[in-house]
Fold each of these.
Amino acid sequence: MPLHFFSKAVLAFALISAPALAAEHKIQMLNQGLDGMMTFEPAYLAVQPGDTVAFLPTGAAHNSRSVLSPENGTSWNGAMGEKVTVTLEQEGIYLYQCDPHLALGMVGVIQVGQAKNLSAAQKQAQTLSSRFAVNKDRLSQYLEKVE
Ligand SMILES: [Cu+2]
């Protein structure tokens, strides 16, 4: 077999099998953000399956812990003041919170691909929001951005 034929075959295989490049997204954990005090920013984020999301601390007072994931979806529990990075493969809605600031409505929504579990997420969001002392409509506003 001539070498050039082999090279073309390898190249063709590489092009066909190469996965789409997974993107990396960043969410900041803020004392003061565009939506007010104690927020994740962006608090609603849409990504593609396989993308990575990093939660970046801006101080020691925040964390990110998942509250709801789609079936077989990953969950996470970031330590206080620590960066946590998650790769999200399963399609659906992910809800997460900052533990010390749940009562202030410090929560967020990530949509991965199709919002397959939207009704479960809406139900969970009602339970979460009932525990907010302020910013009670924040989470439902975030969920309204789901497409
Ligand atoms: Cu916080």
Note: The chain has a mean pLDDT of 91.
Amino acid sequence: MPELPEVRVVRQELNKYVKNKIITDVHVFRDSFIKEIKPEEFKKAIVGETIIEITNYGKFLVFHLTNGKIILSHLRMEGKYNFFDPAKTRFYHDYVIFELDGNTNLHYNDTRMFGTFHLRNVNNYLTIEPLSKLAKIPAETDLNTFYDKLSKSKKAIKTLLLDQTFVVGLGNIYVDEVLFATKIHPQTLANKINKKQAKMLLETATDILDRSTELGGSSINSYTSLNKKKGSFQNFLQVHTKVNQPCPRCKNKIIKIKVNGRGTYYCPVCQREQ
Ligand SMILES: [Zn+2]
């Protein structure tokens, strides 16, 4: 599942290929990908518009079109984009194809079919769902507010950090890495985290997310960015996926547990329960 660094990399790659392209036609092969409106309405709203740029808001890709139109695209489990020059016909599991000028096209492929598209406009996309529900990325999160919310919660810190209405951008891979780097046990109750640790969590999360973005994200499981390009941050993971391997700090074995149903890797020596 792509997390924030991976979505940022997809955004960068999309900008290289489709920025300033005109959408000349759209084919939707499975209606359920288009949320709230009919595929015909989606198509009618965007055909003829130019893609000004692609940004991201948390894990949503935000396509800014002329006429103030916005497409929100969420990749969920397995969504992927492939760009073709010259344009190619549909492949298996391609569910939305954007025909672009210059005989090129952008295929949205999704083997698990959990991805979503929402049509918005520049005036409302931040103030209505789904984006209005999202918190901020760690780099933009105010420490005092963050610490205040931690001290009022009795949830496990890992569970809270995965909650995108609490802080945006940490999925299962990066939460494990951030908790290892800050020496915090994943099941520590949020209200036991002190302010110094809260500060470290935000700073470390920012560093790890930025470093992974620079390295093209983590290609574990099936993640590739655009046109099947792989990232390399998986080579720098310290604990995630490393069950029974020696801890990079103390050489004790990394163990795997479940926290709120999510596979969780940590060092029982470096990350003691508080
Ligand atoms: Zn250790």
Note: The two ends are 30 Å apart (CA to CA).
